[in-house]
TrEMBL record:
SUPFAM superfamilies: Purine and uridine phosphorylases
Ranges where the Nucleoside phosphorylase domain occurs: 19-310
Transmembrane segments: none
Entries under Pfam families matching the protein: PNP_UDP_1
InterPro entries (alphabetical): NLR-like (IPR053137), Nucleoside_phosphorylase_d (IPR000845), Nucleoside_phosphorylase_sf (IPR035994)
PANTHER family the record matches: AAA+ ATPASE DOMAIN-CONTAINING PROTEIN-RELATED, ATP/GTP-BINDING PROTEIN-RELATED
Taxonomic lineage: Eukaryota, Fungi, Dikarya, Ascomycota, Pezizomycotina
Organism: Aspergillus granulosus
Protein name: Nucleoside phosphorylase domain-containing protein
């Protein structure tokens, strides 16, 4: 296509026509998301070239896919800020990619396994994402987490629950979307297919990786016995996702996070988005956040996360998205609210400071006036005169010029300079 803008139904699309965004931290995640698009559009010029975008359509929605230059919460925040500036009609985003699973049990309903999908959802004190490295160390050695991240926007939260309800009655369409992806892009077949149930191994928390890119040297006697699954269909889990600027590669730390916060998954970008970027986090599980990490599950996990994203967006009506307030306006309102909460105390403090300065000036002025007023002056003059040794200073007080100055009704200054010695 040679045109700078995409033509749809005889209408030229502009930046204002793109209302949904997907942020991908890694190239393998971006590849999976782009493969789920129904159409890929010709790119449009933006104000700045800081972000790399893919333009396309998924169902009824025109969507932007932004790949991050590097991983981490700070990079995610930078990418999101630029995206908000580039697309005036943008409504909400989805952070789609891979993450480390926090294993549970079938009885708890959180039997997270490789290839499954974890979706951020508000639970208890958390809004779907917790920044687990933000807090303070207590005197008893415990770590108290402070601050809470925002919930996903209502339009996403409502439709996530709607899709969740649908899956109670009917199977997910994720498998059909995965099959369609490899049919349209045969080159993805080998790399993005399910690696096999036999390669989903969970080692005991106290057993460290012994060697090999795929745990070839690890003792299989140290794996956790789990009931086998009947099929390779990915399961979907809803709950809290842990986020920080560090990779968890230790099972003991992972298990402690689960006890402290109840997280189902850990990753490195969501905390940089949730407070300023209306977003839902979708993570495909590629490892168990322990020392046995390897990359063999990453492509398939990225694909399952992208497939869930597609299934979710396909049930959200375009009109519902269009009626949602633009994210830029929400961000502006949030910033104004924060400023109002800050400016009120600032103005109060400024008033108090001005009042204190005024009182201080009034006190100093009163003190000065008390010195130069007539009655205190006479008192000071008499005290000075009575305190002199006999005969000292008489020449000054008896001087006609001094008497004339003291008795004058006009204001004036009397300068007395002592003798200098060098």
């Amino acid at each position: 296509m040679s045109h700078a803008a995409y033509i749809e139904d005889d209408n030229v699309l502009s930046l204002s026509d793109y209302t949904v965004a997907c942020i991908c931290p890694l190239g393998v995640e971006c590849a999976a998301v782009e493969a789920m698009l129904d159409e890929i559009h010709e790119p449009l010029p933006t104000g700045r070239d800081q972000n790399a975008y893919t333009f396309g359509r998924l169902g009824p929605h025109n969507i932007i896919v932004a790949v991050m230059p590097e991983t981490g919460n700070n990079a995610a925040a930078t990418t999101a800020t630029q995206l908000l500036n580039d697309f005036p009609s943008f409504r909400f985003g989805l952070l789609v990619g891979i993450g480390g699973g926090v294993p549970g049990s079938k009885e708890s309903g959180n039997d997270v396994r490789l290839g499954d999908v974890v979706v951020s959802q508000a639970t208890g004190a958390f809004g779907g994402v917790v920044q687990y490295d933000l807090g303070k160390k207590l005197f008893d050695g415990n770590f108290q987490r402070t601050g809470h991240l925002n919930k996903p926007p209502e339009v996403l939260s409502a439709n996530v629950k709607r899709l969740q309800a649908w899956h109670y009655r009917s199977p997910s369409k994720m498998n059909s979307y995965l099959a369609e992806m490899t049919r349209r892009y045969p080159k993805m077949q080998e790399l993005f297919q399910h690696p096999g149930l036999e390669r989903d191994e969970l080692f005991c928390s106290d057993y460290a990786h012994q060697g090999g890119s795929s745990c070839e040297e690890c003792d299989r006697e140290q794996t956790v016995p789990r009931p086998p699954r009947r099929d390779t269909d990915p399961r979907i889990h809803y709950g809290t996702i842990g986020s920080a600027n560090m990779v968890v590669k230790d099972a003991v730390t992972r298990d402690q996070l689960k006890r402290d916060t109840g997280v189902l998954c850990v990753e490195m970008e969501a905390a940089g988005l949730m407070d300023t970027f209306p977003c839902l986090v979708i993570r495909g599980i590629c490892d168990y956040a322990d020392s046995h990490k390897n990359k063999q599950w990453q492509p398939y996990a990225a694909a399952t996360a992208a497939a869930y994203m597609k299934e979710l967006l396909m049930i959200i009506p375009h009109q519902q998205v269009k009626q949602t307030v633009a994210a830029r306006e929400n961000t502006k309102a949030a910033l104004e609210a924060v400023l109002n909460t800050i400016e009120g105390p600032i103005r109060k403090t400024e008033d108090q400071v001005q009042y204190m300065y005024k009182r201080q000036e009034e006190t100093q002025e009163a003190e000065i006036l008390s010195w130069v007023s007539e009655i205190p002056y006479q008192r000071h003059y008499k005290t000075a005169l009575d305190g002199l040794l006999p005969g000292s200073g008489r020449w000054l007080f008896e001087n006609p010029e001094f008497a004339k100055w003291r008795e004058s009704d006009q204001s004036g200054m009397f300068w007395l300079c002592g003798k200098r010695e060098y």
